[in-house]
Amino acid sequence: MMSLDTLQQSLGYVFQKPELLAQALTHRSFSASNNERLEFLGDSVLNCLVGLMLYQRFPHLKEGQLSRLRANLVNQQPLYEIAQDLDLGQYLKLGEGELRSGGHQRPSILADALESILGAAFLDGGFGPVMGVVEHLYDSRMRRIDPNAQGKDAKTRLQEWLQARRQGLPTYHLAEVSGQAHAQEFCVECRIDVLGLKTAGKGTSRKAAEQNAASAALQLLSVP
């Protein structure tokens, strides 16, 4: 297991009670003293703080728009991606069965562990410090949000942009599925034949991969 000092540096927060961080990294397959209760707390903390960040950042958006944006930021896929950026799987305490089956790479386990860490940080330092952690982890995602998109996902935005210009609709093709059954990675191609454009996206589900491929197409087309 890697040093927890490295993880705390990546989080931008040093725990006063490192045992809380250790518990947040302990899966139920490893010990009865695990991270399930911290995950419950962290889920609520994350929803609250991301909601607050959106509320402050976009004062003119309506409740429904804010809700859609928050849902896009706190679901399993972004949590999994952030956990991967932190190399969180290297720190997890898993039972032998989960270790053998590659549980340290499983999106649900990684996403749950990240929520557990936020719950632990809240108990350890309170509202202010955990807010700092969430702001640090979500900074780049917050800066990429386009309020004019009003919470619409990438596939919807791409379709509407093409329709407004009387262009053909994009098509999505599953190019590859890799990894074991419990931790599969999907690669999807997005093609816009009339523009001669093709992009690829990866994700832990076909739906997520399609969204990432559409997002790549939007970037190539310089759609804000």
- Helix/strand-derived category reads mainly alpha
Tally of helical runs: 10
The CATH homology group name of the largest domain: Ribonuclease III domain
> What is the CATH topology descriptor of the largest domain?
Ribonuclease iii, N-terminal Endonuclease Domain, Chain A
C-alpha end-to-end distance:
41 Å
Shape: globular
What does this structure look like?
The protein has two domains: 4-147, Ribonuclease iii, N-terminal Endonuclease Domain, Chain A; 154-220, Double Stranded RNA Binding Domain. The chain has ten helices and three strands. It has helices at 4-11, 18-24, 36-57, 63-74, 76-85, 96-100, 107-125, 127-144, 154-164, 206-220, and strands at residues 171-178, 185-192, 197-203. The longest helix has 22 residues, at 36-57. It is globular, with a radius of gyration of 19 Å. The termini are far apart.
List the helices and strands and how they pair.
Layout: H1 4-11, H2 18-24, H3 36-57, H4 63-74, H5 76-85, H6 96-100, H7 107-125, H8 127-144, H9 154-164, E1 171-178, E2 185-192, E3 197-203, H10 206-220
Antiparallel strand pairs: 1-2, 2-3
Helix pairs in contact: 2-7, 3-4, 3-7, 3-8, 5-7, 7-8, 9-10
